[in-house]
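Note to self: the last two entries modelled the partners one at a time, which told us nothing about the interface. This time every component goes in together.
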Amino acid sequence: MRTPIFERSERVSRPFRNQLRPAERVFNWVLLMLVFLIMILPMLNVLAISFSSNTASQVADVTLWPKEFSTEGYTFIWNARNLGQAFKNSSFVSVVGTFFTVIISAMAGYVLIQRELPFRKAIATGVLITMMIPGDLTLVSIFSLNKSLGLIDSYLGLILNGLVSAFSIMLMRNYFLSVPESLSESARIDNASELRIFFSIYLPLSLPGLAAITFLDFIGKWNSFMIPLIITTKPELFTLPIILRQLTQPTDSTSGVLQVYDNARMAAIVITVIPLLLLYSLAQRFLIGGLTLGASKG
Amino acid sequence: MSTVARPDRAARKRLFRKMRQYRAIYLMIVPVFVYFAVFTFYPLGLGVVQSFQRVRLIGAPVYIGTDNYAFVLNDPIFILSMRNSIVVGTVSLFINLAVSLVLAISINEIRNRFAKSLIQTVTFLPYLFSWTVVGGMWLQILAHNGMVNNLLAALGLERLPFFTSSAWGRPVILFTNAWKQAGYFIVLYLASIVSIDPTLYEAARIDGASRMKQIRYIILPQAWPTVKTLLVLGATGVLRNFDQVLMMNRPATKDSIRTLLLYIYEEGITKLKIGTATAAATIVMLLTLVITVVVRRIARYEQDASY
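The predicted structure of the combined assembly is written out below.
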C-alpha cells in the first residue's frame, strides 16, 4: 500500500527512482550472495586443501583455510608425478599452436572481407560449413587419420589438430569489417599491394581483435582434452588435462606406486588454472569482447 | 552464336583478370582449405566409409553393409547413452539458459560497481577452466570426505552418496554443468541488456511503471533474441557432452550419465571397434543435424545472411 506522501518522497529522489523496491532489492542481494558463495567456496576449498599438509588434507573437515600450511603437495606433484613435464608440454603446444592459429585466422578473415573477390561467397560458405560439422563426433576417424599420418605421440600432432578454427576466422573477419574502408581505398589509389594494405592498415587497426582471438585460442588449446587423450600414449607427451584426469581416476590412487594425497591433487588443479587466471586478469576486456562478438555474429 | 558468346567470353576474361589481380589474397586462404580438407572433411568421409566396414588387423577392410548399424541400434548401451544424452543434454541446456538469464537480470540491478564486477568475475572464471579442472574440483568437494559432506555432517545431517549412488548421477552433472557454464551465458545476456536504449526506461518511468514491470516488459523482450541465439548454439552441443562425463563418471553413476560420445570413445578408442564406433558417430551426426534444423525452426532463428 502506498500513501500519497510516500509517492511524493519518491519523486524527490528521482535519480534513484529507477530501482527495485527495498524488499525486492534485499531479495536480489540475498540471491546473489548465495550464488557468490556457491561459486567462491569450492575455489577456496581447493586452494586451501592444496596448501595443507599431506595428513591434514585427508582429514574430514570444512576447509577454507590451509591446515598445517605446507607446499608438500606442490613439490610432490611437480616432481613425482611429472606435472612439470606436462606443464612444459601444455605451454609449448598452446603457445606455438596459438601463434599459427592467429596468423592463419587473420589471413583468412582478411580474405572474407574482400568485397570484389571472385568466389568470395563460396569461400565463406566453405568456412562456415565446417562450423556445422561436429568435429568431436569424428574422434575415431581423427584417431585413424593421425595414425596414418604418423602424428600419434608427437608434438606436431598435438599442434596440428585444431590448428584452424572457423570461429576465430569469423571473429577476425568481424573485427576487420569495422576498419573504415576509405583507408584501404586511398591506399589502393596509392598503388599499395593487397598484402601491404593487410599488414599496414588492417592488422594494426584490429589489435583488439587479434588480442581476443589470441587469448581465446590459447585458452582453448590449454584446455584441450580429447585430442591429447586420443593421440598420446607416452607419458613424456602428456599435457596437463591428461595428468589431471589420471590423478582423479579411482583406480589410479590404489594401484599407483605412490599414493597421491588430496593436497597434491588440488595442487595440480591450482597449477593448471594459474595461467588462465593470469590471462583473465590481463586481458579480461578482450576476452569478453571477443566472446560477445563471436556469439552475436558467429 | 558468336554474337551471344562474345559478351560471355569478355565476362570470363574480366573474371580471370580479377582473379589474377587477387592472386595473393587466394594464397592467404589456402592453409585453411588444406586443413579443413585433411582434418575435417576427410575424417567425416572416412567415418562414413568405415561405418560400413569391418576393419581387420591384417589385410584390407571388408565391406559388411549395414551390420555395424544393426549392431549399434540393438546395443542396449547405445540406446541407454542416447536416452541419457538427450535427457541430460536438453535439461542441462534449459537450466543453464534460465539460471543465467535470471542471474544476468539480477546482476544488472546492482548499482554498486565493485560488487557487480566481483560477482561477474566469480561466475565467469569456471568457464575458462577445462572439465578436467572443474570435474576434479567437484570430485573432491562432493566426495564422501569432501567439503559438502563435511558441512552436512557438522550440521548433524547424513552424508550424501554423490558418486556412489546412481540417483545422484544426473543431479551432480546438471549442477556442475550450470556452475561451469552459467558465467558465459551471463556475459552474453548482460551484453544485450546493457545495450538497451535508456530512453525506453525513461518512457516507462514517466508512465509510472515499477522496476519489476520494466524488467518484465523491457529487459526480457530485449534479451529474448539472445536467448534464442544461445538456444540454437546450445542445441548443436546437446548430444556432444564428453569431457564432463568422462571426468566425472564413477562406477555407480556411470549408467545414469554415460553419453553418446562416451559410447563412441569406448567402442572406437578403448575397444578399437572402429566399425561400430563410426556407425554410432554417423547416427549421432544425423541426429544432431535434425535437432539443429528443428530448433532453428522452432526458434525462427535467422542467421546473419551477410556473408
